[in-house]
Automatic annotation (TrEMBL), chain A:
Catalysed reactions, semicolon-separated: 5-[(5-phospho-1-deoxy-D-ribulos-1-ylimino)methylamino]-1-(5-phospho-beta-D-ribosyl)imidazole-4-carboxamide + L-glutamine = D-erythro-1-(imidazol-4-yl)glycerol 3-phosphate + 5-amino-1-(5-phospho-beta-D-ribosyl)imidazole-4-carboxamide + L-glutamate + H(+)
GO biological process, one term: L-histidine biosynthetic process
Protein's job: IGPS catalyzes the conversion of PRFAR and glutamine to IGP, AICAR and glutamate. The HisF subunit catalyzes the cyclization activity that produces IGP and AICAR from PRFAR using the ammonia provided by the HisH subunit.
Catalytic residues identified in the record: 11, 130
Protein name: Imidazole glycerol phosphate synthase subunit HisF
Organism: Desulfocicer vacuolatum DSM 3385
Matches recorded under HAMAP family: HisF
Automatic annotation (TrEMBL), chain B:
Keywords: Amino-acid biosynthesis, Cytoplasm, Glutamine amidotransferase, Histidine biosynthesis, Hydrolase, Lyase, Transferase
Gene assigned in the entry: hisH
Reactions performed catalytically: L-glutamine + H2O = L-glutamate + NH4(+); 5-[(5-phospho-1-deoxy-D-ribulos-1-ylimino)methylamino]-1-(5-phospho-beta-D-ribosyl)imidazole-4-carboxamide + L-glutamine = D-erythro-1-(imidazol-4-yl)glycerol 3-phosphate + 5-amino-1-(5-phospho-beta-D-ribosyl)imidazole-4-carboxamide + L-glutamate + H(+)
Residues the record marks as active site: 82, 187, 189
Name by which UniProt lists this protein: Imidazole glycerol phosphate synthase subunit HisH
Length: 258, 205
C-alpha cells in the first residue's frame, strides 16, 4: 500500500539555511547538505529545498548545494524558489534534483509548466501555490485566491481553477501552501487542502501550519493530502520524524519505516 | 571486479546512479557512444518521462544497434528503470512507437475509474514491493519499500516474468526478469538503503 509522505522543507539563502535551526541534540546546523543528510538518516521520505536567495547572480550557489545534496542523499528531493525559465529548471535537474517547483513564475507565465513537462516529463514539474482565504466573490468562486510575494500581492486568480489549470498544463504534483496557516503551528488549512485534493487527479502536498503530529494525521486523512510538508516542528527539535511517524502509524496511517 | 554501464540518452537521473556506485566503490561508466556500450558487462537503462519521448531519444542516440547486440546477442544483464523497464516491452498504451521488444509484454495505464480508494495519478511515493520468487536482484532485501513515480504499468506476457508485485488500485508487476533482461518500475536510485542494496546486487550478479 502506498505510504503518506513526510517532507521536511529547508529554506536556503546563498547556500545557508536561514533560521538558527536546532535539532533535538541542540547542535546548530546551517549547512543544507548536513541537514539533508540528517533528515535522510532520520526517515524523511522526500525533501524540499526552497531557495530564497534574492539576487539572481548568486543562484549558482544553489546549484552547487543541489549537486552536493544529490551526492549525499538517495531519496527524492525538489528545488523551488526563483525558478523562472526552462534553463533554470534544467540546471536544477542536471545537478541531481528529482523535481522542480514553480510558483510565481507559473502565475505570470503558465506556459513554463507545459514547457517543463514537455522537456523533462510531468513528474518533474511541481506547481507551488500560495493561497489566501478571501471569501467567495466575483472571479474567486472557491473563496481562495492565489497570491505571490509572500502573500502581499493578490493575483485575482481562483485557487481551485488554477490548480486544475496547472494539472491540465502538465504539472505532476501540487504543493499547496496556505499563507493564512503558514507559521501559526495551529494546523493545516483543512478545507482548502480537501477542496483541492478532491478536485484534481494529481498528488497534493499540504503545506503551512504544521505544529503537532495530530495536524499531520488530520490533513492526511480528512484533508485527503498525499503528503505533508513540515518545517519548524522538526527544525527546532520539537519532534523527530520518527516520533511523527510512530504517531501516524498508531492512527493506522501508512508510513515508510526505515 | 563488477562494473556497470549507464546508458546516457538524455533521460533519467544519471547523477544519482553515479553517486551510489561511487559510494559502493563499484566502477561505473556512462555510455554516450556505441564503443562504450560494446565493452559493457552490465547495463542500466534509466528512464523518466513519456514512452514515445524516451523511445525517440533512444532511437536518435545512435546507441540502439549496440544495445540490441549486447542484450540480445551477447546476453549481458540489463536493468531497465521505470520507463526504461516499460521500453523493453513491445509497446505502450502511452505512445505509438514500438518498444524494444526484448520481452513479450505490454504497458497499460492505471484505470483510475476502477480504483476504490486512491484516486491520484501518478502513483507517486513509497510503496511495498513483494518478491514472488527468489532472485539475486532482491538478495539481502527484506520487506522493502521503494519510491515510485508512474502512471503506466508493465503487464507481463507470461506470469513467470513477474519478480515482485505492488498494490496500487490493483496488484501490478513492479519488478520483472526474463533471462538476462531485468526491469523495475520503481526508482532504486532514490529508494534509500533498499535501492542502494538492489543496485549493488545487480552489479554483483
Amino acid at each position: 500500500m502506498l505510504s503518506k509522505r513526510i517532507i521536511p522543507c529547508l529554506d536556503v539563502r546563498e547556500g545557508k539555511t536561514t533560521k538558527g535551526i536546532k535539532f533535538k541534540n541542540n547542535v546548530e546546523i546551517g549547512d543544507p547538505v548536513e541537514m539533508a543528510k540528517f533528515y535522510y538518516e532520520a526517515g524523511a521520505d522526500e525533501l524540499v529545498f526552497y531557495d530564497i536567495t534574492a539576487s539572481h547572480e548568486k543562484r549558482d550557489i544553489m546549484i552547487d548545494v543541489v549537486r552536493k545534496v544529490a551526492q549525499t542523499i538517495f531519496i527524492p528531493f525538489s528545488v523551488g524558489g526563483g525558478i523562472r525559465t526552462l534553463e533554470d529548471m534544467r540546471a536544477v535537474l542536471l545537478a541531481g534534483a528529482e523535481k522542480v517547483s514553480v510558483n510565481s513564475a507559473a502565475v505570470k507565465n503558465p506556459d513554463i509548466i507545459s514547457q517543463g513537462a514537455r522537456a523533462f516529463g510531468n513528474q518533474c514539474v511541481v506547481l507551488g501555490m500560495d493561497v489566501k482565504h478571501v471569501g467567495q466573490k466575483t472571479g474567486i468562486p472557491s473563496g481562495y485566491e492565489i497570491v505571490i510575494n509572500g502573500g502581499r500581492t493578490f493575483m485575482g486568480m481562483d485557487a481551485l481553477e488554477w490548480a486544475q489549470k496547472g494539472q491540465a498544463l502538465g504539472a505532476g504534483e501540487i504543493c499547496l501552501n496556505s499563507i493564512d496557516a503558514d507559521g501559526t503551528k495551529d494546523g493545516y488549512e483543512m478545507a482548502l487542502t480537501r477542496m483541492i485534493s478532491e478536485n484534481v487527479n494529481i498528488p497534493v502536498i499540504a503545506s503551512g501550519g504544521a505544529g503537532t503530529p495530530e495536524h499531520l494525521a488530520d490533513v492526511l486523512t480528512r484533508g485527503r493530502a498525499d503528503a505533508a510538508l513540515i518545517a519548524s516542528m522538526v527544525h527546532f527539535g520539537t519532534y523527530t520524524i520518527e516520533e511523527i511517524k510512530a504517531f501516524l502509524s498508531g492512527k493506522d496511517i501508512k508510513v515508510r519505516k526505515s | 571486479m563488477p562494473s556497470v554501464t549507464l546508458i546516457n540518452y538524455g533521460m533519467g537521473n544519471i547523477p544519482a546512479f553515479i553517486n551510489i556506485y561511487h559510494r559502493l566503490n563499484i566502477t561505473v561508466e556512462v555510455a554516450s557512444c556505441p564503443a562504450q556500450l560494446l565493452r559493457s558487462k552490465k547495463i542500466i537503462m534509466p528512464g523518466v518521462g513519456s514512452f514515445d519521448w524516451a523511445m525517440t531519444r533512444l532511437n536518435d542516440s545512435g546507441l540502439r544497434e549496440a544495445l540490441d547486440e549486447m542484450v540480445m546477442k551477447q546476453q549481458i544483464p540489463v536493468l531497465g528503470i521505470c520507463v526504461g523497464m516499460q521500453m523493453m516491452a513491445k509497446g505502450s498504451e502511452e505512445g505509438c512507437l514500438q518498444g524494444l521488444g526484448w520481452i513479450e509484454a505490454k504497458v497499460k495505464r492505471f484505470d483510475q475509474a476502477a480504483f476504490t480508494s486512491q484516486t491520484h495519478l501518478p502513483h507517486m511515493g513509497w510503496n511495498d514491493v513483494m518478491p514472488v520468487r527468489d532472485n539475486p536482484l532482491f538478495a539481502s532485501i527484506t520487506a522493502p519499500m521503494f519510491y515510485f513515480l508512474h502512471s503506466y504499468y508493465f503487464v507481463p506476457g507470461h506470469a513467470s516474468q513477474t519478480l515482485a508485485t505492488t498494490q496500487y488500485g490493483d496488484e501490478f508487476t513492479s519488478a520483472m526478469s526474463n533471462g538476462n533482461v531485468y526491469g523495475v518500475q520503481f526508482h532504486p536510485e532514490k529508494s534509500h538503503n533498499w535501492g542502494i542494496q538492489l543496485l549493488k546486487n545487480f552489479a554483483e550478479m
